[in-house]
Amino acid sequence: THNLPPGLEYLNQLDQIIIHQQVELLEAILGTETSSKYEIKNPLGQRVYFAVEENGCFDRKLCSPIRAFTIRIADNAGREVIRVIRPLRCNSCCCPCFLQELEVQSPPGTVAGYVVQNWDPFLPKFTIQNESKEDVLKIIGPYATCGCFEDVDFEVKALDEMTTIGKISKYWSGFVNNVFTNTANFGIQVPVDLDVRIKAVMIGACFLIDLMFFENSLDGL
Q: Dihedral (C-alpha) 78, 12, 198, 107: value to the nearest 10 degrees?
């Protein structure tokens, strides 16, 4: 573990990561879009990291699902251990030349990997890349992401797209949460021996999926 990026040692023990978006009172009452804040937990519900989105009010209000952002992820001691950077890009299958690409750094300033959207007319598809931009894993979502009162699974697959090794799940939280707060609850399941840098990139992929497919949805309601 001495070769791991500082702060990622704990990910070395996990095969499941829970991401819970915190409810902002102003956003819940007035519908005003505020910077997202997340708790990242282990399967026992214990907080491992805390994440805060940084961007401008203009980005959140006018560019909501495609907005540029920087998400800073800190450990329980307040030390920033992961940084997720998303530029402003297109979010349409009709424009395959300028699709989503997200960079994950750990420690901040050192690239851990990338999440790259792949063009597909029907399915949400992404490639997980390492720091050298070499393909490592694929993420393939369902035809419909509305959920309809159930979880929505994005499968994590080997590069051949045949073998499933994990998943990113959007948990359906119930009528009150989705209608009045639209908060996000996600679970990431990956092999425990997966490189911790790629686990950090998977957390970034989870944030990207949230904004692309669930930011303004009511999850099937």
A: 30
203 in helix, strand or coil? helix
The angle subtended at Cα 170 by Cα 92 and Cα 31, nearest 5°, is: 75
CA distance 85 to 175: 32
Alpha helices in the chain (DSSP H): 25-30, 57-62, 175-176, 196-209
Count CB-CB contacts under 10 A for residue 7.
23
Residue-wise pLDDT tens digits, 46-99? 999 999 988 654 455 544 556 788 999 999 999 999 999 998 765 555 556 568
Label the pairing between strands 47-54 and 152-157.
Answer: unpaired
Q: Are 60 and 33 in contact (CB under 8 A)?
A: yes
Rounded CA separation 191/201 (Å): 14
